[in-house]
Amino acid sequence: MLGGAIGVGIGFGLQKLAANYVSGFVILAERSLRIGDVVKVDNFEGRITDINTRYTLIRSLGGRESIVPNEMLITQRIENLSFADRNVLLSTVVQVPYGTDVQPVMADLTDTVTSVPRVLADPGPATRLTNFAADGLELTVFFWIGDPENGQANVRSDVNLAILRRLGELGVDIPFPQRVVHLPAPAAPPASPAGHA
To answer: In sequence order, what are the residues at sequence separation of 6 or more whose Cβ sits closer than 8 angstroms to the Cβ of residue 80?
Structure first.
């Protein structure tokens, strides 16, 4: 009985091994994934640094590495951010106070973001009024980068700093949450007992 269980285990193991090898050959032949592609697999995002016949090595922008069995890359949904086009669309959100003349501000922010390094001029940035929020008008700035392997948080930070600096130059404040607090009326003092001064 023990020998039969071991045999079944070995059989399943060899089956998985064979599936990974076949999947590796399929990936290499179809070139659906290539070294240098930025992909997202099972909530792990990074750049493909190596493709073997059995597994694929993905390195995140933070330095962590994930060894992904090739069968997973064939059977599961994979996001390839740079398969046909390396350009990646990013966005950031900022609020301006109600009463602001938003159209010139939107045009100004678009021009400001265009000058940020790594932000592509074609396709260029765009600013849209996306929400009437509780504390202000919500503007979303969309912009493209062509080198996602160099990181996204750093270029988004540069864009945010440029927007903050430009809003300061324009004299436009970013509204902060304002809440109205209602305090209960103070209770009336107890009435004095009858017959006492």
So the answer is: 32, 33, 37, 38, 39
